[in-house]
Every structure is written in structure tokens, then in C-alpha cells.
Amino acid sequence: MQFPGVKALDNVDFSVLKGEIHALVGENGAGKSTLIKILGGVYPPTEGEILIAGKKVNYTSPQEATTAGISIVHQELNVIPYMSVAENLFIGKSLPRKRTGLVDWFKLYQDAKTRLTVVGLQDLVRQPVGRLSVAQRQLLQIGRAVSFGAKIVVFDEPTACLSRTEVDNLFTVIRNLRDQGTSIIYVSHRLEEIFELADRVTVLRDGKKVGVYRTQEVTPQQVINLMLGKELASEGRRMSCMTDQVILRVEGLSSDTGVKEVNFDLHRGEVLGIAGVVGSGRTEVARLLFGVDKPTGGRIMLDGEELTPHGIRKAIRAGIAFIPEDRRYQGLVLNMSVKENATLVFLKNLARCGFIHHAREKKVVGNLINSLSIRPPEANRLTRYLSGGNQQKVVLAKWLAGRRPKVVILDEPTQGIDVGAKAEVHQLIDNLARNGAGILLISSDMQELLNLCDRIIVMVRGKIVKHLNRDEATANKILEYAMRKENNIKYA
């Protein structure tokens, strides 16, 4: 598969057996997304052919791919929230109708119940999809794929927004599909999932197939080395550079988004982690600090001065940067170039008499591309065509194009990116801290928190339940507090 100036896939042979879970791994930019889009009918291949059950197939759209027997369960949930589960299930299909031509709602719901029994949503067919959890919406997509005769189901990062319990439920559904003869292609950056779930794994690097391996015959470290083409040094705990100077103080912060009397200090040079399960209030705290949402009580002090009234513009001017969890829709303008995204926040600094100083802009963006190793190093490339890891680097670049921020809030900064890009983001976090910034790190990756953080705050349902120092923080201890019920909450 070739794009102008870029060969995304180079003579890749890939096969999956009937009733097999086959993992597909590689760094961001290795060609996984392109291969998935070819299989799903989004892109036509420029070379090669696709065979299903030994027969060559040709299709030019996702609808034709589905008819041929291939369905994609995308990371971005393809649902219409104000329509019912049953209606979403039949999107793109003919609805059952009465002789009068009107929709036969009774038959629609009965048919949906039958089709969704395989994923356990049979009792929710009348519910608006907007009321479903993320995990239930994911199951709806799976139900849509398998209930209309898919022979091959492709899962693209399906667990990115799921809790461990929801992941376990999803894995049960996937294993049941395998046992019924459905072939599964599973794409994930989480190697622990690959080795828990998959029978075989295909490794891609730079658009080429490196090899195919049974998961019982290789180790996670060997797969990482194959993905990178080199041995990645094991990452230990970073050296602390935390000072005694408090740069951010939060006192009694509360909001109608569920945050309740949150208190903490962030020191210059510190990486302060926020742990908790989905819905614990971590992201809500970040949004309050950045001025996206308004607090109903409490104070936010930056360098000893209270931020009030608080809003996004004031937060930026004060020196607060925010890298949101959803980089594609909250951190970037996908139809704008790397250059345009990177200079978006501090564009005024690059203007002279109301006009952009293009030579200065080119120099600033060029330096950022080089320092952050953004690939490909093309300032005019649209960000929608970058891999996830490189998109995240552009989000980070946006805050480094002007003066260095005092406080950097990162919400799941390495979610959905490969191990190489993850190590680079970790190094950038360390560099920012060593240059004097205070870092607030929200992450569901336990090892990431333990490796990077000087202290860790644990939240449950909008409250801080525990402050853990670097020496006392362990995965078991964090989970012990994060999983406590609300009636057991005590401030610590």
C-alpha cells in the first residue's frame, strides 16, 4: 500500500486461521492501521490480493467488506447515542417492516434480542445508546459485527477505555466467538493482553512483516525488540528532582461534575500521579484546573496567586498546559497540519503587525519536530495522517512552542501508543520536571505511575482517599485504596 511519498505497507503477507485469535503488533507507524483499513474496505490495496476461505475477494467500501465477511470493531465507537440499541444494530441494514411499509418495531426488538444474546445485551435493546457504558457500546459493535455473519472480526485497541472487569468480560466474549469458529484479528499496544488472549502474533515494523510467532514460544521482551528492531532498555524508576517549592496549591476544590473537597500541593520539579478507576474524578480535577469546568467551591493557587475567575485563557496565560485524554478530538485539529497545530496556542507570539512571521514559525516548528522526533518530519502533513504516538507528540509540541509551562497536566498521555513512543514521552515528562515544571500525571498504567511519580494521589468517586509517598507506593496498595467503596472512604 503506497501513499504519495510514503510506502505504508511493503509486501506484507498476513493470514489468520479459522477459530484463531491472531494478534497484530508494531510501533505507531508500522502499518497496522493501514492493513486494518485495507481489510475493512476503507483503502483499496495498490498491490496484492485478499483471500477469504481460499477465494479471492475484491471490495471498495466498508459495506462490501462486511458483505464479504470482514467486520471491524473500531477504537472510536461508531454509534448514534440518541437512537436505541436495536436501531444502532441495524444501521446500514434493512429494518423489518409491516405490509403498510411502516417499521415493525416489535419484530425489530425481537430480532435484536436474538442477535445480541451472544454479547449479553439482549435486555437493553430499547435503551438509547447514550445511556450505555463504554464497555456496553463496545459489545454493541461486536454484536453488530458477528450477528450479520462476519467470518473475521478485527478488534482495534478495544480495551483503551475499559476497566479491568470490563476487559475480562470482553475477553470472555472474544474467546466464545473463537470457540464458535469466528476468526479474530486483535490489535493492541498492551502486550500483556496479547499474551493473555492470542494464539499467534504477527509483528510489523516500518511497513514490513518481521515474523509470525506462537505466543507460547516468545516473550513480551522479545516481541518489543522485534517491533523496535533493537533492544529497549528496561525502564526503572526515574531519579527525583522534586523541590520544596510549592508551585500549585489546591484547597477544597469541588464541582457539580462530582469533585468533592480535593486538597493537594504540587511542587516545582515534581511528578505527582493521580490514580483511580474510571469515574473516580481524575479527569474532572484536570478539567477544573485548566478552566474547562467551573468549580463550585475551593481555591486554585499558582505561584501563590489565586486563579479567579478561572477559565482556559487565564490558565494558559498563567502557565498551565493540558494534554487531554482524547488527543484526536480534544487535543488536535485533525484537518490542520503539524505546523498549524503546533503553533495554535502561541500563534500571537509568532505574529508581527497582525501577520504571521513565517520564517520564525518555520524555525520554531522545525526545532520542535527535531527535538520530539515527530515522524515523518513534515511540518505541512495533516495530523490526521500521523500515527497515534506522533499525534501525541504534536499535542505536546503545542505547549512547547511558546514559553515553557509552569504546570503540565497529562491525562493518559501514553494510551494507545507503542512502547518506543511511550519511552520518548516518559523522557519528555522527566525533562519538563528537570526544567522546573510541576507535572500532574493521570494514568491507568500502574507501572507508569510507579516509575515516574514522586508521590501518588488515589481518588474514589471524586474524593482523595490516600496520598502515597514514593517509597510506600506499590501496585497492590494503590489498587487496595482505588477499589474501596464510597462508604469506606477516609481522608489520609
UniProtKB/TrEMBL annotation:
It comes from the Bacteria. Its main location: membrane. The keyword Ribonucleoprotein does not apply. It is found in: Cell membrane. Its EC number is 3.6.3.17. InterPro entries: AAA+_ATPase, ABC_carbohydrate_import_ATPase, ABC_transporter-like_ATP-bd, ABC_transporter-like_CS, P-loop_NTPase. It is a peripheral membrane protein. Keywords: ATP-binding, Cell membrane, Hydrolase, Membrane, Nucleotide-binding, Repeat, Sugar transport, Translocase, Transport. The keyword Repeat applies. Residues 1-231, 242-486 form the ABC transporter domain. GO terms for molecular function: ATP binding; ATP hydrolysis activity. GO terms for cellular component: plasma membrane. CDD domains: ABC_Carb_Monos_I (cd03216), ABC_Carb_Monos_II (cd03215). This is Ribose import ATP-binding protein RbsA. The gene is rbsA_2.
